[in-house]
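Revision sheet: structure tokens.
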Amino acid sequence: MAQVLGQIEQAPLVVHPAPGMEMDDEQFFQFCQINGDLRIERTAEGDLIIMPPAGASSSHGNAELTYLFQDWARRDGTGQVFDSSAGFTLPNGAMRSPDVSWVRNERLDAFSEEAWEKFLPLCPDFVLELRSPSDSLRVVQQKMEEYIRNGARLGWLLDPARKQVHLYRPRARPQVLDNPEDLSGEPILKRFVLDVRQVWAAMARRK
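Predicted:
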């Protein structure tokens, strides 16, 4: 168990499959469906990450973020937003579920209806991770770096414990902002501005 800022949350469980028991993408998808009560990711090495349910603060913050991005995406019309339950199979073989992600419509149009029902084999154009109290900062940073290496064009890591935002872009060093008021998604997320204070307030139960 991990304790941060008075909260206690269970750390993720890492399962190392025995040699010869690796699953291909279809087998892994079926495994996740059979174990639908679990939140599961897979690393590029094939390890399974079993994530516990989020605490109320993290869940409320994530709901606020999904709402804000979905509201923008409907007005923008150039892509689709996905919440933390969506799985994406990255080019390196990992299956990840960003807390919020966005993919351009022209990329999604290439997939059949059957593919749409499963984990999409792509890395989203934009990814956001909201660090929970049990998350190791370095582990989440490594996940953000993985997204960028696999094709993400913009990534945001929100760290409510430190009131920091880490910005990730291809061919650039990560940038850390201390308690910014807002974030611009330009040029990837056109005309999108995130009020970061609104997210912190949602997580702190302030209306």
